[in-house]
Known about the structure:
Its EC number is 1.-.-.-. Belongs to the short-chain dehydrogenases/reductases (SDR) family. One of its GO terms (molecular function) is oxidoreductase activity. Keywords: Oxidoreductase. InterPro entries: NAD(P)-bd_dom_sf (IPR036291), Sc_DH/Rdtase_CS (IPR020904), SDR_fam (IPR002347). It is a single chain. The chain is α/β, with parallel strands linked by helices and 240 residues long. It has one domain: Rossmann fold, CATH 3.40.50.720. Helices cover 44% and strands 12% of the residues. It contains eight helices and seven strands; from the N terminus they run E-H-E-H-E-H-E-H-E-H-E-H-H-E-H. Strand 2, helix 2 and strand 3 form a beta-alpha-beta unit. The chain starts with a strand and ends in an 11-residue tail after the last helix. The model has no long low-confidence stretch (mean pLDDT 96). NADP nicotinamide-adenine-dinucleotide phosphate binds next to helix 1 and helix 6.
Amino acid sequence: xxxxxxxxxxxxxxxxxxxxxxxxxxxxxxxxxxxxxxxxxxxxxxxxxxxxxxxxxxxxxxxxxxxxxxxxxxxxxxxxxxxxxxxxxxxxxxxxxxxxxxxxxxxxxxxxxxxxxxxxxxxxxxxxxxxxxxxxxxxxxxxxxxxxxxxxxxxxxxxxxxxxxxxxxxxxxxxxxxxxxxxxxxxxxxxxxxxxxxxxxxxxxxxxxxxxxxxxxxxxxxxxxxxxxxxxxxxxxxxx
Length: 240
Ligand SMILES: NC(=O)c1ccc[n+]([C@@H]2O[C@H](COP(=O)([O-])OP(=O)(O)OC[C@H]3O[C@@H](n4cnc5c(N)ncnc54)[C@H](OP(=O)(O)O)[C@@H]3O)[C@@H](O)[C@H]2O)c1
């Protein structure tokens, strides 16, 4: 069975993606800081009969990242790394004039430095897989200039660029940076409290976009979930 690591898998997009992969028979290593929520998510997945290792911790902790890779090794290897856990840098979001250096550092540490650190630990297993893939969860804030989304957007732009360079350096691995589009999650509510969520899709509705990547294995590049969900539209943003 294929093995995947998904960070930030106790709720939101990470949990929805984990459920879909478990349903397809994937063995999974899941991470989040809040152990109780992570264990509850892992218990839910147990119904699918695959092996699920819930490893609670903070992705900014190098020891925790090593534990995630070790758990995958214990499951037999690694075929997919999903860097999904994310920090906003300020909750609620603030204009750049108010963004603290600590907030920006937190966004960069979680969204970029930790993602690279986990990738570095996971690379030997991904190379050995023969069908290794990395999904780095991006945002349209990485490419569009939205008021108050500057620190978070800068961190996602940096993650996009790491993904693009990794794809060049590791032609044997698929590296997809994916903008999932706006979703109704705690992260969005923390970013913009009280914003009308009625028009935003639930995370589960974008999961088919990720399954399409895994099924069709298009070239490495930057994709958006809405274009992947449009059957005719799965073109890498980089390729446009
Ligand atoms: N929601 C949107 O509209 C939207 C739009 C574009 C992109 N995205 C991206 O989509 C991804 C998923 O976001 P979401 O909206 O699903 O968020 P969410 O529902 O708030 O879930 C975030 C997950 O990450 C975990 N997490 C946060 N910081 C962590 C850390 N330092 N170490 C380990 N786990 C951590 C959280 O659990 P703990 O708090 O217990 O650690 C939780 O499991 C993120 O990369 C986000 O930037 C979201």
